[in-house]
Amino acid sequence: MKIRMVRQAATEDCLFNIIAQWCGKGSSRSGRSIHILSAFASGSGVAALAPCFDMFLAKDNLVEIVFGIDRAGTDMEAVQRLYDLQRTHHSALRGYVFNAPSRHGIFHPKLYVHRRGQHMDFVIGSANMTSGGLGSNFESMLLYENVPEASAEAKHVWNIWSMFKNPTPPLAPGYLKSLTAAELSCLREKLPSRQQSDKHAADKKAAALWKPFSHVTYTKSSPLRRRKPIKDSLLHGDYLLMDVLGETRETQMQLPLNVVEGFFNTKRDEKAEVEVAIVGPDGLTQPLRRPLVKSGKSMRRIEVPGIKNLARSLAIVFIRLKGQKKFAYRIIPQDTKNYIDADQLLNRHGQQEKHKQRRYFIGSKKDDVWPKIHTLLQYGERR
Predict the structure, then answer these.
(1) Which end of the chain is more exposed for a tag (fewer CB within 10 A), N or C?
(2) Residues 138, 126 contacting (CB under 8 angstroms)
(3) Could you give the CA distance from residue 61 to residue 382 in angstroms, rounded to a whole number?
(4) 251 and 355 share one domain
(5) In sequence order, what are the residues at sequence separation of 6 or more whose Cβ sits closer than 8 angstroms to the Cβ of residue 6?
(6) Does 294 reside within a domain?
């Protein structure tokens, strides 16, 4: 176990770089998790971390964030961005709102935990999940690295997390709420749209955090980039709509060879890798390189972590982006209107694989179905 101070603002050593490194290392591993307690959050802080979380969730990993709203210390831009991340990554990323109903005591912890097998790393100190807390403020923080899960230090830290994530007396369960659509709507009446300290656009403040980190590259990813709205000009033309069934692997879906050849432009015996992003409410996620893994004689598999805990059947839409073997997708959960529309399209236009279970069809922006496919890619307006 190693312990050191984080010399934030005095050097390039900062909380943002530490979390980004955790995420980079986790992008090719599974079974890891990041857990954050933050009294306050800002839109710029969440915007900076979003692509890092995209990488971390490339495999079967988990991010949980408990943030406070006492004294309006969190802004609505942060809440909206966290909610968008939830919708993009489904149950792999979970947000929770903590509200202490007292005029004398507020929710004020700051803790960042990275669990990885039998060890954990964590930062404890004064830094919130804001652009200042992540990088530019002078903060007091200690980084504990390679701490055995069975150690006293790890148990104490996990008890702090659990005290707020699973409130027990004297804390009441009602202090903690999941970040749902109803809760999002309720918070609009309570929180400022943007923090006073975030006078500039959140994306610009996020960019300042990225500067010392911009030279770092990851094996599974192109250079890190911030979210940008999806423009129709990015969509190259082809799309694929298909069922996601009870797959043989929890986070991988099967691809019939007709799809591999007809949509991914990969010969059935060719070793292939594609670059894939997720279509989110706030734009395309960080693109990641995914192998098309051979699966018997008649299938390939591709990693789609978001399907793990979703009820079947699902639908999924892949779109081809401009560039060599670049794609994006959106998972369409069963309990949504979009799924009803996707199911009808698959019934009308889909062909079936050999065992007549999985439906799929391939089309282009020039056909009559494209407007309906385009609608399936939309999350509705962000207010």
Answers:
(1) C
(2) no
(3) 27
(4) yes
(5) 13, 14, 15, 18, 123, 125, 139, 141, 142, 143
(6) yes
Task: Look up the CATH number of the domain holding residue 283.
Answer: 2.40.330.30
Its domain, for residue 356, covers 232-376
The amino acid sitting at 55 is: M
Q: Decide: 31 and 2 in contact? Cβ < 8 Å.
A: no
Q: How many domains does the chain have?
A: 2
Per-residue pLDDT of the chain (383 residues; tens, 9 = 90+): 999 999 998 778 999 999 999 998 998 899 999 999 999 999 989 998 999 999 999 989 999 999 999 988 899 999 999 999 999 999 999 999 999 887 778 899 999 999 999 999 999 999 999 988 998 899 999 999 999 999 999 999 999 999 999 998 888 899 999 999 999 999 998 898 876 666 555 555 555 555 544 334 445 556 666 677 677 666 777 999 999 998 888 899 999 999 999 999 999 888 889 999 999 998 899 888 999 998 888 889 999 999 999 998 899 999 999 888 899 999 999 989 999 999 999 999 988 766 668 899 999 988 999 999 999 998 865 44
373 exposure class (CB count in 10 Å sphere: 0-12, 13-18, 19+)? buried
Which alpha helices (DSSP H) does the chain contain, by range?
Answer: 15-26, 43-56, 76-89, 131, 152-165, 181-187, 202-210, 257-262, 337-349, 370-376
Residue with tokens 């069975």: 150
The widest CA-to-CA distance across the chain, in whole angstroms, is 67
**Cβ(296)–Cβ(268) under 8 Å?**
no
CB 128 within 8 A of CB 38: yes
Distance (Å, whole) CA 334 – CA 140: 46
Cα dihedral: 222, 364, 329, 130 (round 10): 70
* End position of a domain, from candidates 213, 246, 278: 213
pTM of the model: 0.89
Residues 224-240 pLDDT 10s: 666 776 776 667 779 99
Per the structure block, which two tokens stand in for 196? 């006073």
Q: Do the beta carbons of residue 53 and residue 152 sit within 8 Å?
A: no
Tokens of 351: 């062909």
Tell me whether residue 78 is exposed, middle or buried, using C-beta atoms within 10 angstroms of its C-beta: 0 to 12, 13 to 18, 19 or more.
buried
How many whole angstroms separate alpha carbon 281 and alpha carbon 88?
Answer: 7
